[in-house]
C-alpha cells in the first residue's frame, strides 16, 4: 500500500520478489547520480521524484520506495489511474498468469488502456465521487469515451482546460516512447491529477503583456497589478487601491473577494498516489472555499461561465500533472514499446474526442 511520510513524500511498500526488487532497480537506474543517458534523464520528467528506499526504525526489514507525492500541491486533487498498454502481463508470465490477466479485461488488447480508478471533486456538492477498477472494467469500446469524460466533469460542466492540458502532457510522454528502444513497460500506469477547487494561484504580468492577452487598453493597469486566476476565475487585483475588477463578471468578483482570505490559508492535500488505496466511500465530504449558500441563485450560472467558457490562454494554464507510475514489470528491450505506444495513442484520441465534442 501507500503511506504518507511526515516530510510530505509517499512511501510505496516494496512488493515481494521479483516485482519489488525490479521496481527498485528501475528507479535506481533512472535516478542514478552518475546517469548520463539522455533517454533516462528525460524520463525523469515523467516520473515521480525518487528519494531512495526507506525503512521504519521499528521494522528495518520493511522496505518502502520513497517517492514524490504528485498530488501534494493541489487543494482538491482530482485523480485518475490508467493502466497503459495492450498487455498487462510481462513476457515471462506463465500461461495461467496470462489467462488471469486477459480475463480481467479482454478489451485491453484492442483499447490499449484500462481505467483502474478515479476520484473527482464536485464543486456543486462539495464532495468527492470515486470509482474503482470495476468501473473501468465495465467500460466498452462504445462507453469508454463517456467513462473517461466523467473524470473531467466537476458537477457543472466539462473541464476542457484540464483535458487540453492532459492531452499536451500525454503527448510529451508519447514522444519519449517514440524515441526510445531500451525499455518495455507492462502493467504500468499513468496518473492524471488536476485541480478541482477554486484554489488561487497568482501570476504577475507586465502592463503590456496583460493588455495584449486580455484586450485591456494600455494604462488601465498599474505596474503593481496582479493577475490571479482562481481555477479559471479570472480576477485582476490592484495592489494600489485594493479594488478588484473581474474580467468574467461583477458577481464573481464579489464571490472571489468574499473568500479570498480562505484561499491563502489552505493546506496542501496529503493524499496517496494510488486511487485504489483511497477510501472506498462513493461520496466524500470535505471543506472548500465554496459553501452551499453560494451555490444558489445567480452564482451557479456564473460558475458555469467560468468553467465552460474560459479564454484560451487560461485553458492552457490548467494545473495538471500526468506521471508514469508502477514499474514492477519493466524490462530491457531493443525495440520500441509498441503496446504502450498503441495505448497512449488510443487514450489521446479518446481525450481529443471528449474535448472536441
UniProtKB/TrEMBL annotation:
GO biological process, one term: inositol phosphate biosynthetic process
Gene Ontology MF annotations: ATP binding; inositol-1,3,4,6-tetrakisphosphate 5-kinase activity; inositol-1,4,5-trisphosphate 3-kinase activity
Coiled coil: none
EC annotation from Swiss-Prot or TrEMBL: 2.7.-.-
Disordered: annotated span: 1-20
Catalytic activity: 1D-myo-inositol 1,4,5-trisphosphate + 2 ATP = 1D-myo-inositol 1,3,4,5,6-pentakisphosphate + 2 ADP + 2 H(+); 1D-myo-inositol 1,3,4,6-tetrakisphosphate + ATP = 1D-myo-inositol 1,3,4,5,6-pentakisphosphate + ADP + H(+)
Keywords noted in UniProt: ATP-binding, Kinase, Nucleotide-binding, Transferase
Top EC class, one word: transferase
Domain of life: Eukaryota
GO cellular component: cytoplasm; nucleus
Database matches in Gene3D superfamilies: Inositol polyphosphate kinase
Pfam family of the protein (one): IPK
Entry similarity comment: Belongs to the inositol phosphokinase (IPK) family.
PANTHER family: INOSITOL POLYPHOSPHATE KINASE (PTHR12400), INOSITOL POLYPHOSPHATE MULTIKINASE (PTHR12400:SF51)
This protein's name: Kinase
